[in-house]
Amino acid sequence: MTTDFKTLPLIDVSPLLEKWDDPSMAQDKGVADVVRQLGQKGHGIPDSLVKEVRNIAHRYFDLPYEEKIKIKLSATTGYRGYQHVGENITKGVPDMHEAIDCYKEVKKGMYGALGETMQGSNIWPSHPPNFKKLMEEYVNLCTELSRKIMRGIALALGGSPVEFEGTRAGDPFWVLRIIGYPGVSPASGQDMPKNDIGCGAHTDYGLLTLVNQDDGITALQVKNVSGEWISAPPIPGTFVCNIGDMLKILSNGLYESTLHRVISNSPTYRVCVAYFYEPNYDAVIEPLDACVKQTGGTTRFEVAVYSKHLVSKVQTNFIY
Ligand SMILES: N=C(N)NCCCC[C@H](N)C(=O)O
Ligand SMILES: O=C(O)CCC(=O)C(=O)O
Ligand SMILES: [Fe+2]
């Protein structure tokens, strides 16, 4: 539920990580505490890796354009690869960021017609060396962590711990966006028309997002129910979590997929590595019975096929 928050809640999920696969986890006091709070800290992904992922992203974005464009994103790469500043569009306005988009592999013929647009495997830069290995390790750890957090969310929603396993998200699709926001020069004249929208207001598409952002720069903002933009500053050792559109539907609106945006007005280049935990690619998503019961017995959302939602977004996100 979106509330009139002024700061973002912070939660230690370590009790959940200990008991995540225990059949009686719902009775555990520590798990119950996490379930009550929800958010994250004590997440178990080594801080060294979290930092190294941002560090290697900086080194890639520092390369000359000719080098970066070797892995150019297009429809033929399954929307995987590099996009230059201004090529991603949100609500018709170009975003002031560059990025590498990565998706879980979709093999030829997988998911029939549903799989065609996103078919492909990731294209990785050859510089800096180790980029692929580091990002794949990071994705694996984020996937494990998200699966555990989703067990906690399932309980928080009044369901069984495994609501998000099986055909809903037992074989979760994932997205990784490695994003760079160029610094803005304070010298650029005040009368210059300047776009400080690093990323326009949007909601994320899937279940849960783990945002790994550079220290020291506040740029991400989340909209509360009163319509105010609340900053989500970087806190070392934590991820900012967004709820995605599919979890809004599953929860029948008990959880909102919160609008957020990135304002780029820092003189310093900012990196963010956003990991998106999504339903099974072909999952048919509808409100959970437990959530419908708690919200007056009426289904508030249409049934959605996750990959159709993803494809509709991806196909309108780029200038090409
Ligand atoms: N895979 C995810 N969630 N990507 C989020 C990107 C948000 C910006 C995009 N242009 C949009 O309008 O959605
Ligand atoms: O840069 C950020 O902090 C967030 C990026 C974001 O919201 C996204 O890529 O979906
Ligand atoms: Fe986002």
TrEMBL record:
Keywords, ordered alphabetically: Cytoplasm, Dioxygenase, Iron, Metal-binding, Oxidoreductase
Q: Which residues form the Fe2OG dioxygenase domain?
A: 171-279
Q: Which reaction does it catalyse?
A: L-homoarginine + 2-oxoglutarate + O2 = 6-hydroxy-L-homoarginine + succinate + CO2
Compartments, as annotated in UniProt: Cytoplasm, Cytosol
The principal localisation class reads cytoplasm
Q: Give the UniProt family note.
A: Belongs to the iron/ascorbate-dependent oxidoreductase family.
Q: Which protein, by its recorded name, is this?
A: Homoarginine-6-hydroxylase 2-ODD-C23-like isoform X2
Q: What organism is the protein native to?
A: Coffea arabica
Classification of source organism: Eukaryota, Viridiplantae, Streptophyta, Embryophyta, Tracheophyta
